[in-house]
Specification:
It is built from 7 helices and 5 strands. The protein is of the alpha+beta class. It has 2 domains: 72 residues; 151 residues, Heat Shock Protein 90. Helix 3 packs antiparallel against helix 4 and helix 5 packs parallel to helix 6.
């Protein structure tokens, strides 16, 4: 895209901003011309124009800022929705592969029973355990009844297996909980990415992530606990990070805190120096739900 086309697109899409700049230009011209008019009537007219342009420019500034803020939120939402669709598509493919693997295990069990003449229940159980061990990394595990959260947890569990991170997952969040799926996904993905990133800096055998997701009263609570380096310098303030990819990490924290604030919740963390673990907790209030539930 050429520079001229970019300018044209900007003028089309950012009309509020352009109008504000035009009014400010007119304001500057009128103020400048006032130096050349000494007549009282002309000065009065210029004063009225200056007051009008001041008020109108402030109004346009408010509208422009509101428009830019709305556009930014819309862009974030579209990005998160695309990411949500990607997670769900990957999950669907995993389900299809898991069904094929289960059919293969069933056939191998039937074949083994015929070939090895297995008669006792103990022998059958041992054979089944052996086959399950072979396919354990490819059998689909459902962690949560909420499909989006389940897709994210499954995706991240595969990544944690690949990175040799021990993990435990408890997820008790239902479908249609009252918060949009892309919001839940944004908080969970960023928290898990931060936890996995921290674990990558820990030596093998000491990597651990504990995930606890649940609903309490009218709140949804995300609690993620993960191991950290012995000499790690924890900086979990918005925009700050000790990780290599500092920019994205800081943005991730900003997303979490922004969502928590929007849903009248909170985000905080606690470091346990004895166990070398950090616990991060994000709390979101479910809109319009009775607190006495």
């Amino acid at each position: 895209m050429t520079f001229s086309k970019k300018i044209v697109n900007f003028l089309r899409n950012e009309k509020q901003v352009v109008l504000f700049l035009c009014i400010e230009t007119c304001f500057f011209i009128v103020t400048f011309l006032s130096n050349f008019f000494k007549n009282l009537v002309c000065q009065s007219i210029i004063l009225v124009l200056v007051i009008f342009f001041c008020i109108f420019s402030l109004y346009l500034l408010f509208k422009a800022l509101h428009y830019l803020d709305t556009s930014y939120e819309k862009q974030i939402k579209e990005t998160l929705l695309a990411e949500q669709i990607n997670y769900q598509n990957q999950h669907i493919l995993s389900i299809m592969q898991s069904e094929k693997d289960l059919m293969k295990i069933r056939k191998e069990l039937q074949l083994a029973v015929r070939n090895y003449n297995i008669k006792t229940e103990d022998e059958s159980r041992k054979l089944a355990d052996c086959l399950l061990e072979v396919y354990k990394d490819r059998i689909l595990i459902s962690y949560c009844s909420n499909k989006v959260i389940d897709a994210v947890l499954y995706n991240k569990s595969l990544l944690m297996k690949k990175l040799h991170i021990n993990y435990a997952i408890t997820a008790l969040i239902n479908e249609n909980i009252g918060i949009e799926d892309y919001v839940l996904m944004a908080v969970l993905v960023n928290m898990l990415d931060n936890a996995i990133g921290a674990c990558e800096q820990v030596t093998f055998g000491k990597r651990k992530v504990l995930i606890d997701l649940y609903k309490k009263s009218n709140y949804v609570i995300f609690k993620v606990e993960n191991s950290i380096r012995t000499n790690s310098n924890i900086e979990l303030t918005s925009g700050k990070s000790t990780k290599k990819n500092k920019e994205n990490h800081g943005i991730g924290l900003q997303v979490i805190e922004s969502i928590c604030k929007k849903y009248q919740g909170s985000y905080h963390f606690k470091v346990n120096t004895k166990t070398k673990m950090i616990t991060c907790t994000a709390i979101l209030m479910i809109p319009g739900e009775n607190t006495n539930e």
